Structures are given as structure tokens and as C-alpha cells.
Amino acid sequence: MLPRRQLLKGSAAIAALTAWPELGFAADGVLSDAPINLCASEVQRPLLPGRRPSRLFLYDGISPGPTIRRQQGDRLRVLFHNDLSVPSTIHWHGVRLTNRMDGVPNLTQAPVRAGETYLYDFILPDAGTYWYHAHFNSLEQVARGLYGPLIIEGDTSLSSSSRDVVLTLDDWWIDDDGRFVDGFTDWSQGKPGGRIGNIATVNGNSPGQLVEIPAATPVRLRLINAANAREFFPDFKGAEAKVVAVDGQPLAEPHPVTGPLRLGPAQRLDLMVRLPSGGEARLAEASGTLLGNQTLAVFRAGPPDKNAPQNVQLRPPNLTRPGPNNALQIPLVMTGGSSAEIAGARYQDAQRNLKQLVRAQQVWAFNQTADLPKQPLFRAKRGASVLVQMENLTGWSHAMHVHGHHFQVLNSRDDLDAKAWRDTVMIDRNQKVEIAFVVDNPGRWLLHCHMLQHAVSGMRTWFEVV
């Protein structure tokens, strides 16, 4: 195997905040066809300075994992080494890739056993902000740190790392001795709303780190929510900011930031920000629920980039709009989370009562079925339009994620969602949300809640494109 190469870019301040290597570049900056080696292993170290060591699962020993940067249309080849003591896979979240490369164990591939390798090899059809993460026992493996950013360039000429900043947000549920609070094997210790942590990190560091960016220059700020269940509500204060892309897909028109934005688990938001000379701005967390620092990052204006374009526009995504009037209509009713909301459901092809579901730790359901059914939610021919009518009858919000496709939200109460192509949408309790998309990617695709405790406890189904 060829050794991994790094391309060192950006100012010292950005390098300090984004301290992981960027993979996929040869020494001269030309993209290489050599596979990237990416290793998952167990690491014992303090999550943050001053804390006791925690048992982490990390890619290449760092948190987040290495940022992978490629160009739209490139072929990405990643040789995954599983040095964990348990099986794992990698899911490339938001990428419309070949089905067998999607990383869903026992649906698209067999789990990669301990000590084994697996070659992921696929084309990157869309530019944008994505991420990769474990998809075997994802409740635990993602919570322990198995994730990293995937940036696909090509939707704009803006490419200098001093004008392209990635912030990966996460939270961790850890006690004073550095141990993860369980909830991985005993559902009763979990929280019905999902695994909400007591420590927050930004790019693996304490929130509030300083980032220097060029003054009077458009800078792309990519936000990724890697938390198991926490919603972040970022609010850019002190300078001009506009949302230019959602879940990796550029908006037709930028959306001005006039207050807190909603960033659910697995969602991404791209902002275009501009600081005046001598200016300073901060990315605040507006929910008020984080312990300690409510500032996610501080931005300070450095020397202007005289070669930077002053007007940056992103190219619209190359996605086929669905025809909702002629669409296959699929109901998806969510129940569960408490004994009052799920009296019984089908599980493993048999009807189960509440006591049996609790014993099996399957306490959430789609259409009265817990966990993956033998038959798909629907089967459709390639090119068909599909309208999924989701209704949340539970007492909690859910982050619904569709694999292999992007969709439009037809009846969103959120003005930003109404303009966007998404792969993950938040659905609040007692809310009905309709999503429409063209099933143009053949294979068997997962549809699940990305509040990962909900997913492993029943909120998973699948559909097939033939």
C-alpha cells in the first residue's frame, strides 16, 4: 500500500482548530488513485485536557477522524482496517453512492469483522458537505467517536482552506471518572429523547476556540452535527452570514442568518460569512442547554485575501424534482418511547406485546413494526416519484434520514427546509411531514431515525429501488 499523504493548507489558527490530516491528496496537490488507509481502533485517552482517560473508538486515533477532501466526480477508494475487537462498517452519510458501498450491515454488506479489511470504492456524484461514520452498533460506535468529515469540492471556485472551515459538533455522556454512561447495552439507562451528553466538543476540542479568517473575504463555514441525539441551534453573531447549502446541497438563493438555526443530528449547514477588517464574530449555541461555554467558536479577521472572489455563488444540485401528484404515496406512522404510546408491535416477523418488546429493547415502531422488517416499506421502479407521509405520534422529536437519496420537504413549518434538498429532516411530536423524492438509485436503502438510540430500538425500515 502507498503511504497516506497530507496536504498542509491554511493559516496557523485554522490548523490549530482542525488538527486532523486531510486525506486523498498527493504531495503536489493532485488527487491520487491510491486507496486511503482508514483504521478504526480503541484508544484510551482524555476526551479533553484535564479530564480522566475515556475508552474511545477513533479513526486513525483522532477525533474527529481525518477530513477526506475530494473533487466532485472523483472515485473515492478507502481501505478500511477494523482494529476494534468488534465488527464495524462505514456509512458515507448523504452520498448518492453505489448501494453495496453504503455500509449498512446485513442490508448492503456483511459486517467487517475484527482484524479484517474492506475496500470502499465509489464515485462522488455531488459536491457538498458530508460525513462518514460507523454503522454497526452505531449507538455505541458513533458515541465513542467513530466519525469524520467528508468534503466534496466542485460546487464553487472557493477552495483555499483559509476560506473553507469545517466545524464538527458533538456531545459526550461521560462521568467524572471518564467512563461513558452506559445506555449502550441497557436501554433502561438511556433517555427516551436519545443520548444527550454532558460535554460538548467542536472539532474534538473544547467549544470557544479562536479561528482566524481573512477579513473582507467570503469564507465558507461547514457545520456538521455528529451527536447521537442532541440538536444544536447555532447563531452567527457579529458579522454577515448566509446559509448557502443544506445537507450538502446548495440553495437556489442564500438564506440570511437572522437568528438561531436548527441543526439536528446528522444534518449539515454551510454558511458564507464575511468579517470586516479588525472585526470579530462568534458562533453561539442558542439553546442554552450546553454546560459551560455557550460559544461554539470565535472568528477573528486576519489579513485580507486579495485574490479571493468577492461574490461567491454555489452551483445548484443536479437532482431530479419529484412529481408529487403522480407519486407513490407511502404512510409512515411513528409510535413508541413509552408504555402509553406502544402497546405492541411486530418484531422479527411476529406480533409482540409491550413486555416482550421491552425485554428485546425494541420500544419504537414504524407502522406498528419494530426494527427492520423482512419486506420493504415499499418497492418502486427506478425513476418513480415517491411521497412518504410521516406522522410522529410519539412524545419526542426524530431526525429522519433517507440513505442514497435527497428529498424535498413539501409541508415544512421551517422556511429553510422548504427551500432545501435534504437527506435528514427533523420531525417534532404531533407533527406531520411529507417528503418527496425520485428513487433513481437502485438497491436496498435504509430509512431510519438518526437519533441513534431510537434507531437501534426499533426505528429502522428499508425500501428497494429496482
Polypeptide structure, described:
The protein is mostly beta strands and 466 residues long. It is 6% helix and 41% strand. It has helices spanning 12-17, 138-143, 354-359, 415-419, 452-456; strands spanning 22-23, 36-46, 53-59, 67-71, 75-82, 90-93, 117-123, 128-134, 147-153, 164-172, 199-202, 209-214, 219-225, 234-237, 240-246, 249-256, 268-274, 280-285, 295-302, 328-336, 344-347, 350-353, 364-366, 379-380, 384-392, 398-402, 407-409, 421-422, 424-427, 432-439, 443-449, 460-465. The strands form 7 sheets. The chain has a 6-stranded mixed beta sheet with strand order 11-10-13-17-15-16. A hairpin with a 2-residue loop joins strand 21 and strand 22. The longest helix is centred in the N-terminal third of the chain and has 6 residues, at 12-17. Mean pLDDT is 88; it is low at 1-31.
Physical arrangement of strands within the biggest beta sheet = 11-10-13-17-15-16
Summed over residues and divided by their number, the pLDDT gives a mean of: 88
Largest sheet: 6 strands, mixed
Could you state the oligomeric state of the chains shown? Answer: single chain
The coarse silhouette is globular
Strand content: 35-45%
Number of helices: 5
Number of strands: 32
Cα end-to-end separation: 37 Å
**What is the radius of gyration?**
21 Å
Going by helix content, strand content and strand pairing, the class is mainly beta
Residue share in helices?
under 10%
Low-confidence stretches: 1-31
